[in-house]
Amino acid sequence: MGILQTLFHAEEEIHGSKTRAIGVGLFVAFGGVLYGYDTGTISGILAMTFVKDTFTSTGAFTAGESSLITSILSAGTFFGAMSAPMVSDTLGRRYGLLVSTVIFTIGVILQTASSGKNLLIVGRVIAGIGVGVLSAIVPLYQSEAAPKWIRGAVVSCYQWAITIGLLLAACVNQGTHGRNDSGSYRIPIAIQFLWALILFFGMLILPESPRFFVKKGKLPQALKSLSKLRGLPADDKIIEAELEEIVANYEYEKSFGSTTVWDCFTRANSQLKRITIGITIQALQQLTGINFIFYYGTQFFQNSGITDPFITQLIMNIVNVVATIPGIALIEIAGRRNLLLWGAVGMSVSEFIVAAVGTALPNSNSANKTLIAFSCTFVASFAATWGPLAWVVVGEIFPLRVRAKSVAFCAASNWLFNFAIAYATPYLVDSDHANLHSKVFFIWGSCTFLCFLFVYFCVYETKGLTLEQIDELFDTCPSARKSKYFVPSQGFAQDSPDAEKAVVEAVEKV
Predict the structure, then answer these.
(1) Which of 220, 250, 288, 408 has the fewest Cβ atoms within 10 Å of its own Cβ atom?
(2) Is residue 5 part of a domain?
(3) pLDDT, tens digit (0-9, with 9 covering 90-100), for 256-289
(4) Contact at 8 Å (CB) between 50 and 171?
(5) CATH label of the domain that carries residue 129
(6) What global pTM score does this model have?
């Protein structure tokens, strides 16, 4: 753990069990495996010979069929993400994740049992609802449970788990695509039961978010939860001080009145600015075009004349997993803004090169090598920056009273654009429609240039701040470009004797 202290320059910030702080966040990140694996399986399944012969009358999926089967998951996830606060704000973050795994499992059962398009589509919708709920709660739980010195890296691990899920899907697809029976697609789909079971039983053990208990006025439970998460006694001064700050900040937030969905879009407490940043960064993450590679990569490489598209897709997934690691390591050193800016540059340059070379030298050997090489640099740039950091930003920037609802809106934005891109892409690249092929990367490259401008003017630097200090940042710093110079005050607790009294009473009850 000394390496971690050195890496994050946090020697004076670390209190309690470092292993527990990291372990809890990493396990919850496992939810990303469900998301990534489910996303990754469909690319290979639609390219399998047995599936095309069984699920179609012509031996090939039309652009409309590919669009519907692929994108319908995202339609489910949109509604799942929007409904997540009903669970996470009522039952809790932990029970919300348990509910999501149950819904997801029902969808997996239907997909595994399918022998035609209709049941497969229904199963993907239901699984998508589960993934949508999960995608809105995982970064929420991680942000609320992790200490500030490791919070960004922990939430980034959610994206890393997604990349691992994508890689596992590519590996399983590679192993089964040659089968001439239903096992070619049923095995990859059924393996998802394992991921759901691991997350379900793990969440039975982990504590609830202490901030959820504060929101519900259950301070003794919040104290116990915080004690478990930090690995310190409930009467430790560090635990008491942290809980006091959470309580005092929430009491301040409540002074704005009761909370409704519309409060996510009010100007009070800079909330309108925050929700605009969150929704936009999630939309732009999808507009980078990353899911073009993971939804349609196998088919795209196949149509480009690459001899083994399944291996090429596997390479993309390996790059995706490996390149996420530097982003996790650098997030608390370089900060959010710098990584997002450089990531946008790397993606944009890579995509314009793919588009230009693919247009000038279509289906040539040299063009295919360039396509693979710069697709790799594009994936690497995304994996180290925009992949994890979009989730980090939305997990951090919202006040407690509207955090669950706001994160849900942002996750829904991600899935809405995910659906639109997944549905439109086959028509963009299909030879019977727009026939853009490699030219589609001109669109993605232009969008990533917008990513750079958006971060420069709008995204605040939140490195090294508690969630409560981030509230103060948005209240007092008018410009994102000046946010890196922000110095927090001593906090709300010093001006709130009621918070101190409440925590003392909670300690006595524990």
Answers:
(1) 220
(2) no
(3) 665 678 888 887 778 899 999 999 999 999 999 8
(4) no
(5) 1.20.1250.20
(6) 0.80
